[in-house]
Amino acid sequence: MFERFKNYLAETKVEMKKVTWPSRGELKDATRVVIVATILLTIFIGFVDQILSNIVKLVFR
Q: How confident is the model over 18-32, as pLDDT tens digits?
């Protein structure tokens, strides 16, 4: 079992050397995109929620 774990770590090390890590600038840009997308999606979901809540109130009044 220890041999399998050792093999796993060796293979992981080889694969990690193949990874192309983003630069600091690319990481900042990607983070901004995620934050803006999250904010826009939150606003959209809130808007749709308000509309659906009003429709449900009208139907069950």
A: 999 999 999 999 999
In the chain, where the domains are located: 23-61
Report the Cα 12 to chain-centroid distance in Å.
Answer: 24
pTM beyond 0.85: the answer is: no
Three-state secondary structure call for residue 20: coil
Please give the structure tokens belonging to residue 56. Answer: 């449900």
The pair of three-digit structure tokens given for residue 44, joined into one six-digit string: 């959209």
> Is 43 in contact with 50 (CB distance < 8 Å)?
no
- In angstroms, the CA 11 to CA 5 distance is 10
CA geometry: angle at 46 spanning 42 and 49, to 5°? 140
Residue whose token pair is 């690319």? 26
HSE-up (13 A, CA, CB side) for residue 24:
0
